[in-house]
Design brief:
There is one protein chain. By secondary structure, the protein is mainly beta. It has 2 domains: about 35-280, no CATH class; about 290-385, Immunoglobulin-like, CATH 2.60.40. Helix content is about 10%, strand content about 35%. The chain has 2 helices and 24 strands. Strands 3, 4, 6, 7, 8, 11, 12, 14 and 15 form a 9-stranded mixed beta sheet that branches. A 5-stranded mixed beta sheet has the order 17-24-23-19-20, with no helix packed on it. β6 (about 145-150) and β7 (about 160-165) form a beta hairpin. The chain is elongated and about 80 Å long. The relative contact order is 0.13.
């Protein structure tokens, strides 16, 4: 005869066993859907609901499970906020999703692959017929998109745009890309999904996966009108975003996903995209306005070019940015551009103008200009006999 205690123990053991089986099965299913596979077309529906793309496809989260993008960090509140980017692929398609909320505004996703062209100033965008399109107040630094996907609140068919080869401002809308969005005013669970053929992104032998193994991604919320910027981006921007939509914003950070680590010219199979994602600067980032901290003149600010002396100087800033240095006289006449040395943010000037003539004795202004366009800084030097 079995006691009540023994019967209870057997039932608990069976329950534990069933629970272990369920957890193991769930984990197996999760792993199966989290890795890239030869064909995901039956598993991923482009319907503006991104739940087929799971935890391992989320790239704004680290391997320890820490969120790299806050869902409440937008200047305009949680109803205009990028929450997550998701990425996966099979042999033929790249699948992307942006989880966000957009209340009467726009959501854009940028893709950068190639080094030799791409958007620089979004306010100058033109269709191929030279009419303006998607002109927003964003400049790009460290990142020049070759493609972008754009939609607006309550539009369920996002537009896919391709930058004309060798161009920085001419774009063409491609109507064959499968997209869908569910941004609907206060829908906090909205998403934009895109399914892009790899042969659209890598379209000839020069622009191939063999030569360009990574893609870079950046998503933003923008105002609905031309020449507006926006309150949030993902990943976080180095210099921050804008509460005032009329303020121009520099976009200078990105997520970079390694598509072909093997180097065989085909997308990697059986990997978690999250594990092949890196950033220019890993978020979350506390935004910092670009500042000049110091200018160091190695041999002082006075020199004599007639004695073959040069002036050498180094710029210190609070965060990464390139600069150029233009030289002017006190009347504002342009003289020359200082020569960069092998060291970063370090220049020399030999006291000659752009025609290689020695300049007259006097005071000259070195104008340090950030390539991002954020700031400029002046220093005076003296040319003596």
């Amino acid at each position: 005869m079995v006691s009540i205690g023994e019967e209870t123990s057997k039932r608990l053991s069976k329950l534990r066993f069933n629970k272990i089986i369920l957890i193991t099965f769930s984990l197996f299913i999760s792993i199966c859907f989290s890795i890239t596979q030869e064909d995901l077309s039956d598993e991923i529906n482009i319907d503006g609901v991104s739940n087929e793309l799971d935890y391992y496809d989320e790239i704004l989260i680290d391997l320890n499970g820490n969120l790299l993008e806050s869902p409440i960090d937008s200047y305009w509140g949680e109803y205009n906020d990028i929450k997550q980017l998701k990425v996966t692929w099979d042999l033929n398609y790249l699948y992307l999703a942006v989880d966000a909320c957009s209340y009467d505004n726009n959501v854009l996703l940028f893709i950068d692959i190639y080094d030799d062209y791409g958007i620089e100033d979004m306010s100058e965008l033109n269709n191929l017929d030279n009419t303006g399109t998607w002109r927003r107040s964003f400049n790009f630094y460290n990142f020049n998109p070759d493609f972008f996907i754009a939609t607006w609140d309550r539009n369920d068919t996002p537009q896919f745009w391709k930058v004309e080869e060798e161009s920085s401002n001419r774009v063409e809308q491609i109507f064959t890309i499968e997209t869908f969005a569910t941004f609907d005013t206060d829908n906090l669970d909205g998403a934009m999904e895109i399914k892009i053929p790899f042969d659209m992104l890598f379209f000839d032998n020069e622009h191939s996966l063999v030569n360009f193994k990574h893609i870079k991604l950046l998503s933003i919320i923008t105002g609905g009108d031309d020449y507006t910027s926006g309150p949030d981006c993902a990943p976080d921007n180095l210099g921050g975003m804008a509460d005032d939509s009329g303020q121009m914003v520099i976009l200078d950070n990105y997520a970079e996903i390694l598509i072909d680590a093997v180097g065989d010219g085909y997308p990697d199979m059986g990997i978690n995209p999250q594990e092949q994602t890196s950033f220019l600067e890993t978020p979350p980032i506390k935004p910092e306005a670009l500042l000049v901290q110091n200018v160091i003149f190695q041999n002082g600010k006075t020199f004599s070019p007639i004695l073959d002396e040069v002036i050498q100087f180094e710029l210190n800033t609070n965060r990464l940015s390139d600069f150029s240095v233009k030289i002017f006289d006190l009347n504002g006449k342009f003289i020359d551009i200082a020569e960069e040395t092998e060291n970063p943010l370090n220049w020399i000037w030999d006291g000659e103008d752009q025609n290689q003539n020695l300049v007259p004795f006097g005071i000259y202004i070195l104008c340090f200009i950030a390539d991002t366009g954020e700031i400029s800084h002046n220093e005076a030097v003296v040319v003596i006999k």
